[in-house]
Amino acid sequence: MTADVVSGAPSELRHRSVRIYQPTRNTMQSGPNKGDRWRIDFDVLLGGGRWENPLMGWASSADYMQGTRVSFRSKEDAIHFAEKQGWDYYVQLPEVKRVPPKNYAENYLYRKETLRIMRTK
């Protein structure tokens, strides 16, 4: 038995699809804090009562689950929670970006194909 039957949640939630992903770091964040968390977001409903606020231009929605986010320590925990709730889910794997090693001396290496740093003042 799934947990949504016991929890008393509305029946519309039973067959919603959710996305399980690992969010990217904030651009202002240089450290690895919160970089290993996984998150569940609800997909936007088609025809879910979306409208644009004429005064501010903000997009509004009648979907009350659109702003709901649940975070987990691992991908397996998020998958287990989605299965327990009876939700359809898909996992979006994170892109692994390789950062090439750099050092200060590479700025002054001589290479025929590239220009060196030149100071005019």
TrEMBL record:
Q: Does the keyword Hydrolase apply?
A: no
Q: Where in the cell is it found?
A: Mitochondrion inner membrane
User: Which terms under GO biological process does the entry name?
Assistant: electron transport chain
Q: What is its main location?
A: mitochondrion
List the record's Gene Ontology CC terms alphabetically.
mitochondrial inner membrane
Record keywords, A-Z: Electron transport, Membrane, Mitochondrion, Mitochondrion inner membrane, Respiratory chain, Transit peptide, Transport
What InterPro entries does its record include?
NADH_UbQ_FeS_4_mit-like, NDUFS4-like_sf
Q: Name one Pfam family in it.
A: NDUS4
> How is this protein situated with respect to the membrane?
Peripheral membrane protein
What this chain does, per the entry, is described as: Accessory subunit of the mitochondrial membrane respiratory chain NADH dehydrogenase (Complex I), that is believed not to be involved in catalysis. Complex I functions in the transfer of electrons from NADH to the respiratory chain. The immediate electron acceptor for the enzyme is believed to be ubiquinone.
Family label: Belongs to the complex I NDUFS4 subunit family.
Q: What is this protein called?
A: NADH dehydrogenase [ubiquinone] iron-sulfur protein 4, mitochondrial
* Organism listed in the record: Rhodocollybia butyracea
Q: The organism's lineage?
A: Eukaryota, Fungi, Dikarya, Basidiomycota, Agaricomycotina
